[in-house]
């Protein structure tokens, strides 16, 4: 019997895996699907540099290799899902405000620390712009897909800051809604309300313009086109 090849999903938090895990495992049922939860934003963790980001991703894949005793040839694809967090907006759209947490609008970010957010945006957009042009990591086909402003915005139309408990509750409800209904999920994620039209690189060109990275957009529908064989 032929052993299944591995598709690795890199996601930011456990609620991402909860919301998407069963959907991806059903769709890619001919393969072994493994999720890696990095518990944060891998493009910003430990102040990773643009030169070191591929090493960081490679280290993340090595965690799966060690845990399940895979080798490099077992992997068929790496799918990396990130939040844009509005990082492509003009610097002047980051506004100073007396807020406890960073607040996101559809055309601005409010924060107590404008310089901190501007610096964060600059670092992250450089890394995202690099990663979206990468085709492989350690010889494994690699693609990075985005949710804007974040996963909760795209899946639940929630742009406000949510607690971990609120994220958990929403992701559980979402997973239940699409359990065994992967075609319905693909229809939703491909709908005009959220999906950015165009090729992979064209969808990235779009999200990098103006304030698009704060609005409700995703290119995750491209994960399903074409289906991995």
> What's the overall average pLDDT, rounded?
94
H and E order: EHEHEEEEHEEHHHHE
Structural class: alpha/beta
Fraction of residues in helices?
Answer: 25-40%
Q: Regions with pLDDT < 50 over 5+ consecutive residues? A: none
What would you say this structure looks like, in words?
With 229 residues, this protein is α/β, with parallel strands linked by helices. 37% of the residues lie in helices and 18% in strands. The chain has seven helices and nine strands; from the N terminus they run E-H-E-H-E-E-E-E-H-E-E-H-H-H-H-E. Strands 1, 2, 3, 7, 8 and 9 form a six-stranded mixed sheet that branches. The radius of gyration is 17 Å and the shape is globular. The mean pLDDT is 94.
Features:
single chain; 229 residues; alpha/beta; 7 helices; 9 strands
List the helices and strands and how they pair.
Blueprint: E1 6-11, H1 14-27, E2 32-37, H2 53-68, E3 75-83, E4 94-96, E5 103-104, E6 109-111, H3 114-131, E7 136-137, E8 140-148, H4 151-156, H5 164-177, H6 182-189, H7 200-207, E9 217-218
Parallel strand pairs: 1-2, 1-3, 3-8, 4-6
Antiparallel strand pairs: 5-6, 7-8, 8-9
Helix pairs in contact: 1-5
Question: Would you summarize the structure shown here?
Answer:
The protein has 229 residues and is α/β, with parallel strands linked by helices.
């Amino acid at each position: 019997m032929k052993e299944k090849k591995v598709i690795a999903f890199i996601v930011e938090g456990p609620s991402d895996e909860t919301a998407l895990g069963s959907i991806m495992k059903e769709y890619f049922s001919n393969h072994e699907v493994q999720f890696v939860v990095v518990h944060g934003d891998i493009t910003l963790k430990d102040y990773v540099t643009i030169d070191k980001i591929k090493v960081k991703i490679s280290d993340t894949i090595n965690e799966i290799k060690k845990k399940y005793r895979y080798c490099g040839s077992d992997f068929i694809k790496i799918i990396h899902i990130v939040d844009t967090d509005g990082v492509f907006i003009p610097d002047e759209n980051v506004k100073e405000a007396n807020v406890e947490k960073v607040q996101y609008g559809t055309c601005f970010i409010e924060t107590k620390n404008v310089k901190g957010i501007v610096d964060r945006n600059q670092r992250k957009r450089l890394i995202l712009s690099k990663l979206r042009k990468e085709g492989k990591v350690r010889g494994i086909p690699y693609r990075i897909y985005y949710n804007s402003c974040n996963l909760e915005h795209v899946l639940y139309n929630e742009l406000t800051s949510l607690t971990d408990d609120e994220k958990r509750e929403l992701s559980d409800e979402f997973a239940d809604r699409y359990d065994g209904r992967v075609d319905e999920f693909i229809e939703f994620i491909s709908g005009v309300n959220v999906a950015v039209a165009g090729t992979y690189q064209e969808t990235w060109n779009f999200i990098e313009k103006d304030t698009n990275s704060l609005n409700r957009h995703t290119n995750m529908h491209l994960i399903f086109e074409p289906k991995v064989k």
